[in-house]
Amino acid sequence: MSEQSSTEHREQQQDQPPVPVPVPPGRSLAPLVDAVTAMLDESSQRGADPADPAALNVADIARRAGVSRPTFYKYFKDVPALVRAAALQRMEATFERVPAVELGDTWTIFVRDTFQTLLTDLAERRRFYLSALALNPTDVASDFIRYISHRLLTHSPLGPIIHRGSGPDTAAERAEFLAAGTVWLVQQWLASSTDPLGEVPEMVERLSALLLSSSGATEQEIAAVREAQPAPKRNA
């Protein structure tokens, strides 16, 4: 296989939708995910430190879900694996609320629909997501990166710009690089902000500019985004 065809093959493979967390189907799975989600939400409401999720244990989660410990281990090897599934399910639910954006639509529409919805959800549930990242930083962050990179490539006007880049790296690898930077920036914002909901419009604009300038977009494309009407601020 030639170097060019090998690269094209990698492109086709990496452009596929992200693979969900592999867990067996079963009636006891949903109660476990719901239980740990509720426990993390309640911990957040009490103002518990999201970086100290040690209070979560298999016995309490199984009791809350109404299942046995052996049932827990039928689906998950440990608490971090369950938290990963809960974070991914919540992230999937958020993306389901994002309006479908065709490649012909504008970057401004994509940013408004996708990042406005996503960052608002992250801000409203920031302690949940920070707890999930504290418990399982590698897997949870990887899931988020896969989702964002896939959406950049296949559901945004930035996809063709990323695809037209030259070099030994694939478009999927370039998209993952952009998505990884996005996840890191958003995580730092959630951890340090005193008013994340109030800062959503500012973060939307910041991510828009950073992604565009880092993707290989032309000066005209960048100028068009900067001159676009900013996203409306959330009512107090």
Automatic annotation (TrEMBL):
- Keyword flag Secreted: no
InterPro entries in UniProt: Homeodomain-like_sf, HTH-type_TetR-like_transc_reg, HTH_TetR
Locate the HTH tetR-type domain: which residues? Answer: 26-94
Instruction: Provide the residue ranges listed under DNA-binding region in this record.
Output: 57-76
Query: PROSITE patterns given for it?
Result: HTH_TETR_2
Task: List all Basic and acidic residues biased stretches.
Answer: 1-13
Bilayer-spanning residue ranges: none
- The annotated region (Disordered) lies at 1-29
Is Glycosyltransferase one of the keywords? no
Arranged from A to Z, the UniProt key words for this protein are:
DNA-binding
Q: What protein name is recorded for this chain?
A: TetR/AcrR family transcriptional regulator
